[in-house]
Amino acid sequence: MDNKTTEVTADNHRGPSAPKDPTQKRSGFFIMFESIIEASARQDGKFSQEIYLEGRLSDKAKFTGGVEDEEILAHLASCSGIRKLVHSIGVSVKAHDENQGTEIYFSLENWGKTNKYESGTRIRIPCVADGSETLLVLDEYEWSSDDDIPGKFTFEFEQAGALATASIILYLNDGFEVPEITPESPVEFGSEAYHGMIAKSLVSKGNNYRLKAAIEKAKRGEDVTIAFIGGSITQGAGAKPIHNTCYAYQAYERFKQLFGYPDADHIHLIKAGVGGTPSELGIVRYDRDVLRNGTVEPDIVIIEFAVNDAGDETRGNCYESLVLKALNKANAPAVILLFSVFQNDWNLQDRLSPVGWHYELPMVSVKDAVVEQFRLSKAEGNIISKRQFFYDIYHPTNAGHTVMSDCLGYLLEETDRSEADGADILIDKLPVIGNDFVEIRLLDKSNSEDIDAVIEAGSFIETDTDLHMVEMDLDPFGTPQFPHNWMHTAVAGDGSFKLTIHSKRLILVFKDSGSQDFGSAEILVDGQHMKAADPHIINWTHCNAVILFNEQESKEHTVEIKMASGHEDKRFTILGFGYVK
User: Can you say whether the dihedral through the CA atoms of 394, 399, 405, 410 is positive or negative?
Assistant: First the structure.
């Protein structure tokens, strides 16, 4: 069975022909509990919700299932360990709309040793979408000897946008026990204690001159645009449906309710979150995704990169540059810094908040609101638990997104109640971290002939269409990121991509991919080897930004990108560049 996927379904699995006696009540733990799932359109034409398990299954067990036993957690790291630990998987799924179909398919997919995405076992079974439990007994299926680690669970629907509530529980083999989890009481969103928790999110009202101006503009019935830029949380990850339950949409609706009704058509939303990316990429795409290439002037910009910027090579320089890029626009927009939080109580607020203090900006911290009360029991004053707030270890549930929106709403209400500051903030001063990338511009295939640069595409002549898809603005479906790209394929030869540009700073954006069709590329600057670009470090389809040079003086540079030795028959996609003249 090596080197091929073993796919089995409920109709062809190896199992007994006669019904078995009822199984005993087994100890078990949830890795998903009453989580809302949503069907997204995939490249293969299917509609599904994928739950990735690689490196995450033990976190899900700790987080959702409350598992603390280190032996049990260690077993979850490998397929062989799971076979020793898990007797069966209980899957229950309830469709939100009876018209969306009576069956939803569930699959377990293991990654293989020989060929990660092709040589592991894949088990696919139908589940009746009425909330009843379907049991997948592990020993009733043939398994590949090439199984390495658990890869992902998938729920397949009949149509895009379909919603359901799902739970997954792992029932354990004899000899393993875990304590049962007591169901939690619902979050009391309107309570006095809840409002007290939300109030703790206000790090600083800052200088309110610009935010008050935007609020008053909305009250007069004039057009106001609210823009959000950030990572996957701003994209809406964990929110179901993603386009109208994410915190950005909810905050936009709150702004309309506070300052725009009865006629709120003059208040507009721009949502520009891209999952898995830091401000290093955010600043490259700001003109395109927020300003819409000069066609939009947002009045309020919310910046959310506090949990994404661990990967920022500049350690805050790109973040402060992005803040200044937004602040410097002629229409003087208000900029709000939003600090979200991961399930392990971590964010980069300590690194990034000095930027807000330096420019007297409003700052809101979800971490400050929720982390302290996470540690309390309900009797001690817990308002929302981690299981209620987080969809997974990174992203909020619908309830978590509501908390984030309410934190922003509290800032808006406090600003509206406050007296207006008499003067605007001072921007023209020395930066607290750095401002090297304020003037960055995007270079891709769509505008390469309009700038002072020479490009020889070599073998990078194709256009990649299998791109990171992102739900922008009010759109429930994905928009491809960086569609004007250069892709190398083996049939195009082995010629290098060469860019000659007069610049002092340059960022390369290339595609990360989980496909084995993609290989590494070597990058040379002015003839000197700079770095290797490996599209499999993160191993899923998204955008990766890396700095190629950062100098104080502008001069002519030549950048060469060529396939690494032994990878000439693979693909590699240059999504674009960010350059500072």
Answer: negative
Residue given tokens 């090596």 in the structure block? 2
Question: CA separation (Å) from 108 to 10, 89, 169, 311, 373?
Answer: 12, 10, 13, 31, 35
Q: Residue 22 pLDDT more than 50?
A: no
Comparison of pLDDT for 18 and 103, the residue scoring more: 103
Under 8 Å CB-to-CB from 496, ≥6 apart: which residues? 456, 458, 459, 560, 561, 562
Residue of 374, 320, 383 lying closest to 345 (CA atoms): 374
* pLDDT for res 19: 37
Q: Report how far apart the first and last C-alpha atoms of the chain are (Å, whole number).
A: 56
* pLDDT over 80 (residue 308): yes
Neighbours of 221 (CB within 10 A): 13
Q: Which residues contact 350 (CB under 8 A, 6 or more apart)?
A: none
Q: Residue 407: what are its φ and ψ, rounded to 5°? A: -65, -45
Q: Which amino acid is at 205?
A: K
DSSP 8-state symbol, 187: P
**pLDDT digit string (tens) for 111-120?**
999 988 889 9
| Mean pLDDT of the residues in the chain | 93
- Alpha carbon distance 578, 581 (integer Å): 10
What are the two backbone dihedrals, phi and then psi, of residue 72, each rounded to the nearest 5 degrees? -65, -45
